[in-house]
Amino acid sequence: MSALTLTVAQVRYVNKAFWRNPASAFFTFAFPLMFLVIFTALLGHYQVRLPGRTISSATYYVAAMASFAVITACFNNIAMQTTFQRDAGILKRTNGTPLPSAAYLGARLAHALLVAVLLVVITAAFGRAFYGADVPSGLTLLRFLVMLLVGSAAFCALGFAITAVIPNADASAAIVNATILPLLFLSGIFIPFTASTPGWILWIARVFPVKHFADGMQAGFIGTAFSWTDVLVVAAWGVAGLLLAVRFFSWEPRTG
Asked: Which residues on neighbouring strands pair with residue 48, listed in sequence order?
């Protein structure tokens, strides 16, 4: 069997395993919608000023929660699930089978991409139905899809990379959330930037990929200016994550 055939077969297996855990699947899809409803209800309806545009807070949070959904599916889930499988010895046994490592990891990445796309579609439909948010179309849709695919792949690579510093499954949720949650706040995902946002926060946002990814997603949903620099920054982080994963990824359970 070719590597592609094996990867496709493994994607089907990963997909079955995902849906056979209905609680996990439900909250994977429900979290972005829950946060969208909570933020709009808790913070009220107000105007958010973006470069060249002023939009309602509800529209802003539709785009923000779509970005959050992708990051959760590709970074959080990949990192935590891979760590649990490593500690349970599943990765070690899988690595001892004829299945190529690239097919196994590629299948995990492909499944995360599919879940991310489905999450964005659900979030966009929910935002359109309940908040009147715009849906990307035309050239905007093409650019949006480029950012979506590049961002999903990049955060999957970073998810694999961070498993190298997670000592065991019990620590996975703490380390993953401690890594990504501050960046979500410092990148304008949960709280929009304003004219009074401190300069050091803006500087941090420009360094890390979350803000660049969110800006690319906003360009599709909101119609703000699209920048290929955002795509390149996210892609660069993805390449860095891939290189780190190739160098430090472990199939063996940690003993210490």
From this structure: 55
146 found inside a domain: yes
Residue 253 located in a structural domain: no
Report helix, strand or coil for 5. helix
Strands in the chain per DSSP E: 47-50, 53-56
pLDDT per residue over 66-105, tens digit each?
999 999 999 999 999 999 999 999 999 988 888 888 899 9
Spatial separation of the C-alpha atoms in residues 70 and 159, rounded to whole Å: 12
Q: What are phi and psi of 132, to 5 degrees?
A: 65, 25
Q: How far apart are the two ends of the chain, measured CA to CA in Å?
A: 38
With 0-12 CB in 10 A as exposed, 13-18 as middle and 19+ as buried, what is 203?
A: exposed
For residue 255, tell me if it sits in a domain: no
Count of domains for the chain: 1
pLDDT per residue as tens digits for the range 196-251: 889 999 999 999 999 999 999 988 878 788 899 999 999 999 999 999 999 999 99
For 224, the domain range is 3-248
Q: Which of 76, 51, 75 has the alpha carbon at shortest distance from 218?
A: 51
47 domain residue, yes or no: yes
